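Here is one chain, start to finish.
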Amino acid sequence: MRYRYSEWDEDMIRRLLADRDLTRLFNYILLQTNGDVDEALRWMRYLQERGILSDDVDLNEFEQRLREERIIQKIGDRNQLTPKGEKLIRQDSLDRIFASLKPGARGNHAIPREGSMSNEPLPERRPFSFGDSSADIDFNESFANAMRRGAIDNLGLEEPDLSVRQTESSTACATVLLLDISHSMILYGEDRITPAKQVAMAFAEMILTRYPKDALDVVVFGDDAESIPVAELAYVGVGPYHTNTQAGLRMARQILMHRKHLNKQIFMITDGKPSVIRRSSGVLYKNPVGLDPVIVNRTLDEAVICRKKKISITTFMVTSDPYLQQFVRKLTELNRGRAYFTPPDRLGGYIFWDFINNRRRRLK
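Its structure:
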């Protein structure tokens, strides 16, 4: 059989790569502008004026293509993201993070409890053993084994010929992603909220597409906590807030208690210490200086309640301050959870490996 190959079109490939990079730049700026399309396009024009973006790029054409592909739409006198555009940002975030993951990342821990399972086939094969399901037998491989044994003239399967697909069992989980939106996430000239949002969107897209039986909720917390739809992640921004970690953990716990999944967990992304609680009277009690024992104790109490409800807390601390790490270690100890101290650019690797490795086990 002959195959005819067309001529390699380098210009076309270059254009495709340029379009992809341009779209990724647009998506990343969108996260920084909290989903404001017009502001993101203004920033791209500013980058072009400064010579950072090539003059060859036609941004008017790019904007028109976004509209034609229904990634953005005109509502009134402003451009806004469509649901397709929101999904595109999540997918792009997922692609970026998975491309950056390296083998051997941390996060290999045992699953605390087993819930409903779904078997997923793996490429590996092994010999049949008593108790294996007939549905897992690879008959193509098994017949090949029989032929190698020399049973071509009188083909018949014997037990030593049988080859079984290895499977991996996925444990259904209910997860609440807690995202810190207090002012400290942009303090000291370091943008921690944009990579945190990017990881959150990628994490959401992975669960929605790869683990549809899982449950994922997103809670943001500053002075108070609020549950938001996944679609609103792109529009989340840091506010002039303190850090009410207790409120975030409490809302996450309340959400998880309504989930039927046996495995329940909280993933918390934060960079600071708890600095505020809301008293029973409704009044906010704030203390941004040091670790206030009243605030700290109420927050640690919530970690203990989560442990008693069999809800594990994994904290991803995007700061290296030993003073703040001491608090996180205490919270982790009381909850019997896990803690990672990681820079923002490595946050995705820690979260994804911890999630995947803690919800799977291989069946032998």
